[in-house]
Amino acid sequence: MAYTFEVDFDPANPDLTADTDTQNEIFIQAFNSGDGALFNSLYREDSISNFSGEPLTGEARLAFFKEFLGTKPDLRATVTHAYVAGDVALIGVNYEIDTTEADGRPVQLRGICTDVLRRGEDGRWLMSIDRPVAATGLVAS
């Protein structure tokens, strides 16, 4: 699939970069594309995402992203803090996602997210841990 993004990145070989603002824009663009496989490519193979409300890795994470992003939710995110130490980055984000419930009713997910990125041997930065905590919405408790 061909995409046109405001912040240029290679969907076949993604790199979230060490620059926090660029990383946030790439993450938002991939999420808002609705392409779960593209979004999943921002994650290391062994990474964990808690976006579903439970920690998912590998094929389970990919399946969740394909299903959820297939509904074309809209993500907005603002970085609250970022720390880089060598090949590890810790990033805090406030997020809002507009989506729909199974019956088609609109719902907004809001919360905070803590992300850990790691730079691999190839120099690319990818998501290692993605831990959103919803204050409202589908996975809030």
Shape: globular
> Fraction of residues in helices?
10-25%
Strand content: 35-45%
The secondary structure category is alpha+beta
Structure overview:
- This protein is an alpha+beta fold and 141 residues long.
- Helix content is 21%, strand content 41%.
- It is built from three helices and five strands; from the N terminus they run H-H-E-H-E-E-E-E.
- It has a five-stranded mixed β-sheet with strand order 1-5-4-3-2, covered by helices on one side.
- A hairpin with a 5-residue loop joins strand 3 and strand 4.
- It is globular.
- The chain starts with 19 loop residues before the first helix and ends in a 5-residue tail after the last strand.
Give the arrangement of secondary structure elements.
Blueprint: H1 20-32, H2 36-40, E1 43-49, H3 58-69, E2 74-85, E3 88-100, E4 106-119, E5 125-136
Parallel strand pairs: 1-5
Antiparallel strand pairs: 2-3, 3-4, 4-5
Can I get a quick summary?
The protein has 141 residues and is an alpha+beta fold. It has helices spanning 20-32, 36-40, 58-69, and strands at 43-49, 74-85, 88-100, 106-119, 125-136. The chain has a 5-stranded mixed β-sheet with strand order 1-5-4-3-2, covered by helices on one side.
Task: List its salient traits.
141 residues, alpha+beta, five-stranded mixed beta sheet, 3 helices, 5 strands, 41% strand, globular
